[in-house]
Amino acid sequence: MKNFKRTLITSALPYANGPVHIGHLSGVYVPADIYARYLRLKGEEVAFIGGSDEHGVPITLKAKKEGITPQDVVDKYHCIIKDSFEKFGISFDIYSRTSAKIHHDTASEIFKTLYDKGAFIEQTSEQFYDEEANQFLADRYITGTCPKCHYEKAYGDQCESCGSTLNATDLIDPKSVLSGNKPVMKATKHWFLPLDQYEPWLREWILEGHKEWKPNVYGQCKSWIDGGLNPRAVTRDLDWGVPVPIEGAEGKVLYVWFDAPIGYISATKEWTPEWEKWWKDPETKLIHFIGKDNIVFHCIIFPTILKAEGSYILPENVPANEFLNLEGDKISTSRNWAVWLHEYLLEFPGRQDVLRYTLCSNAPETKDNDFTWKDFQTRNNSELVAIFGNFINRTLVLTNNYFKGIVPEIKN
Amino acid sequence: MARLGNKYLADMEPWKVVKSDPERVKTIMNISLQITSNLTIVFEPFLPFTTEKLRRIMNLDKFDWQELGRTDLIGAGHKINTPELLFDKIEDEAIQAQIDKLQTTKKANELEEVMINPTKENIEYEDFAKMDIRIGTIIAAEKVAKTRKLLKLTIDTGIDKRTVVSGIAEYFEPEKIIGQQVSILMNLAPKNLKGIESQGMILMAENTDGSLVFVTPATRIKEGSEVR
Question: How does DSSP classify residue A188?
Answer without folding.
Answer: E
